[in-house]
Amino acid sequence: MSAAGKSGACEAMLEGDPDQNYENVLAEIQSFELPIEATLRSVYDDQPNAHKKFMEKLDACIRNHDKEIEKMCNFHHQGFVDAITELLKVRTDAEKLKVQVTDTNRRFQDAGKEVIVQTEDIIRCRIQQRNITTVVEKLQLCLPVLEMYSKLKEQMSAKRYYSALKTMEQLENVFFPRVSQYRFCQLMIENLPKLREDIKEISMSDLKDFLESIRKHSDKIGETAMKQAQQQKIFNVALQKQNNVKFGKNVYINDRIPEERNEVELKRGFEEEDENEEEVLTVQDLVDFSPVYRCLHIYSVLGDEETFENYYRKQRKKQARLVLQPQSNMHETVDGYRRYFTQIVGFFVVEDHILHVTQGLVTRAYTDELWNMALSKIIAVLRAHSSYCTDPDLVLELKNLIVIFADTLQGYGFPVNRLFDLLFEIRDQYNETLLKKWAGVFRDIFEEDNYSPIPIVNEEEYKVVISKFPFQDPDLEKQSFPKKFPMSQSVPHIYIQVKEFIYASLKFSESLHRSSTEIDDMLRKSTNLLLTRTLSSCLLNLIRKPHIGLTELVQIIINTTHLEQACKYLEDFITNITNISQETVHTTRLYGLSTFKDARHAAEGEIYTKLNQKIDEFVQLADYDWTMSEPDGRASGYLMDLINFLRSIFQVFTHLPGKVAQTACMSACQHLSTSLMQMLLDSELKQISMGAVQQFNLDVIQCELFASSEPVPGLQGDTLQLAFIDLRQLLDLFMVWDWSTYLADYGQPASKYLRVNPNTALTLLEKMKDTSKKNNIFAQFRKNDRDKQKLIETVVKQLRSLVNGMSQHT
User: Fold this and answer.
1) Which one of 212, 507, 521, 726 has the fewest CB atoms closer than 10 angstroms to its CB?
2) Considering the domain 285-414 in this protein, what is its CATH number?
């Protein structure tokens, strides 16, 4: 109950019977353990003088409790007095008992003195007897210990360390515990650790000699292991070939190389094997492993096997790093790579042997870790050094070494998939070196070509060419000798070299453990690179050479046409090698068609360019007298020479596809027309006479006659003549002096002078106007008809207004 609750209850009590209420308050004070401040406050705060009455009641209560305490003490007093009286009686009896016990003890002591003396004599004799027996027993224990220790010394002197350790173990476990309390035993025990350390040092010295020995013999071990792996591979290939022959199958070596390309090599390999046949050596024959076994046993007995394992692994890891460090010039010769591989193989062959003949010294996890570390280093080294190789033959020999290296270590249980992945990187580099080599081959072929059709005088020469290049033309076969192939000598040479490239690329795919489909894909991709990059680049460089003329360009176009047709035979050639049908879904197609088309287009463009350049050379020979009063009556000499040149060139173009020749002819005529127009409008030409215009008109007429003579078959109607339409309309305008028609019909679709630009007409008219002022060509007109002169001025003004209107509209 809270203090407020108590105060309220007490006030309620005091409001009733005062005597009874005070009794209740006292009872409450006696029974409550909580603070009584609230109860007392209610007593003192209620009524005046209430505390006096409460104090009287409290004193009465105290007196009642005192009376009750006194009654209780009076009731128990007699029992306390009786207990004290009994205790005093017992003390007297206890003193009597003490006297009796003391007397009895004295009598016993007097009676046992003689017995004690005799007993001590007996005890002394028994001790002497026991000591003698103990000495005999201890001597019997010590003598075997001394004999064993002497045996230990003899074993140490004889260098029988493993037996000495066993003796030490026996001493410690069996003999020393029996005599451990003697000092000589402690001396022996203290000497044993030193002996063990001596043994550890001696065995460790033997181990170091062993490690140095295997480091020196790693070359020979690896060479032997790789030779055995290569012999096993040759045997397996020969066995597979025999099985294929037995069952009548089409023979492919490893499903990759046709039998006829490998039979000679296999036969040579077997002959060398027979000539050099010798006893097969194993790693145990080349290296004495007893120091390792002995050292391992010694450390095992010493309980320090972990230290030995750590030391061995640490030292071998150091040797591994040394072995994996290549020579700086390793990439220069195949012997450098061979030494590198044999050392690594020798190292891991030793580790594999240790793994299988010892327990715990080398674990599979440790060898895997070591191999993964070595493999990463090997791949990095080979990737770096192979990048320096520019000789495809050296890269191919490196690949063969890597395959033998991988097969050898795979035979010992080491994973080598990453090495074969590396071979795919090296394959790309090999292809790059091949492409560089064949780029030189193609350049030499193009340099030696005479760019003229291949002449043949008899059947034998015809068959020789057909055997080199798949050419089929029934019309040529029907012709009598002598006759000519349409292509030049470079075409069969290039075709042969592409096949040789495929064979060279195929060599790298041997023994890569890849399916025929993958090999087929590799060959097609590398051939595509040869065609689209190397051959295409060589063709483009050839086409752009300054000394290559129009005749050579025509022959190049013919050559690319035949090479394009031969691409399907190259695909059949690859199919025959890999036995993968071209209809297979994932078969890569050769891109030779696009390559030769691009080269042909480049040659065509070069023909157009060179033809225009030749036209420019002839036009530069033009020597017009722009102030002549009358024309010569015949066309200019330079123009007739140019037309004759064009006629002869277009005769050569008869072997080209029709559109090429037509395009070249149209381009030439357009360029000639543009050049003549530019000659008239040249800013350095300040004046032109009417006679010069008439002479120029004669030259344009010759151009039109050439265009209408159909220099190239297949052009429709007056297509070529349209190339000179701008010149014709401009010259007609000035020759006829039909300005009224021109100005009246300007801008009309049916205008007679639709192709005459006002600016062009103004430029030429101003040059003729200047001439009239200086040479007085129009003097008679000014004298006879001044209105006509005003008309010229008017035409000039109108032309200028047309030009200004065009400029504002633009």
Assistant:
1) 212
2) 1.20.1310
| Structural domain boundaries in the chain | 285-414, 433-604, 666-807
Calculate mean pLDDT across residues 109-136. Answer: 86
- At residue 551, the pLDDT reads 84
Name the residue type at position 69.
Answer: I
pTM: 0.64
Tokens representing residue 390 in the block: 């520019």
- 576-629 confidence digits (pLDDT tens): 888 777 666 455 667 667 778 888 888 888 888 888 999 999 999 988 888 888
Contacts 24+ apart (CB under 8 A), 500-503: 501/434, 501/438, 501/526, 501/527, 501/530, 502/526, 502/527, 502/570, 502/573, 502/574, 502/577, 503/261
**Nearest of 720, 730, 721 to residue 752 by alpha carbon:** 730
Nearest alpha carbon to residue 435 among 487, 504, 384: 504
Across 791-796, average pLDDT: 78
Q: How many CA atoms lie within 13 A of 756 on its CB side?
A: 28
Average pLDDT in the 359-377 region?
A: 87
Percent of the chain with pLDDT over 90: 10
Query: Percentages helix, strand, coil for the chain, rounded to the nearest 5?
Result: 80, 0, 20
* CATH tag, 433-604: 1.10.357.30
**CA–CA separation, 437 vs 134, rounded Å?**
100
pLDDT band per the 50, 70, 90 thresholds, residue 276: very low
Give the count of alpha carbons within 13 A of 280, CB side only: 9
What residues contact 103, with CB distance under 8 A and at least 6 apart?
none
Evaluate whether 619 touches 676 at the Cβ level (below 8 Å): yes
Q: What is the mean pLDDT of the chain?
A: 81
Tokens of 282: 């194993």
* Other CB atoms within 10 Å distance of the CB of residue 73: 9
Whole-number Å distance between alpha carbons of 19 and 59: 14
d(CA 654, CA 657): 8
Report which of 309, 350, 342, 310 is spatially closest to residue 323, judged by C-alpha positions.
342
CA nearest neighbour of 336 among 398, 426, 405, 403: 398
pLDDT, tens only, 210-228: 888 888 778 888 888 888 8
Nearest to 597 by CA among 535, 651, 545, 667: 535
Return the C-alpha torsion angle 505, 508, 512, 515, nearest 10.
Answer: 20
> Do residues 754 and 729 lie in contact, with contact meaning Cβ atoms separated by under 8 Å?
yes
* The total number of residues written for the chain in this structure: 810
**Any idea which residue has 């340099």 for tokens?**
447
For the record, the structure tokens of 605 come out as: 């463009």
pLDDT at 443: 93
Q: State in words which class domain 666-807 has.
A: mainly alpha
Q: State how far the Cα of 504 lies from the Cα of 264, in Å rounded to an integer.
A: 17
What is the DSSP secondary structure assignment for residue 333, as one 8-state letter? -
In terms of average pLDDT, the best of 118-122, 345-349, 439-443, 554-558 is: 439-443
What element of type H or E holds 566? Answer: none
The kind and range of the H/E element at 253 are strand 252-253
What sign results for the dihedral spanned by CA atoms 727, 733, 734, 739?
A: negative
Q: Which segments within 507-607 are labelled E, that is strand?
A: none
How do beta strands 454-456 and 252-253 pair?
unpaired
Q: What is the pLDDT of residues 538-587, one digit of tens each?
A: 988 988 888 888 888 888 888 888 888 888 888 888 888 887 776 664 55
CB-based contacts of 384: which residues, under 8 Å, 6+ apart?
none
Q: Measured between alpha carbons, how far is residue 444 from residues 452, 600, 756 in Å? A: 17, 20, 53
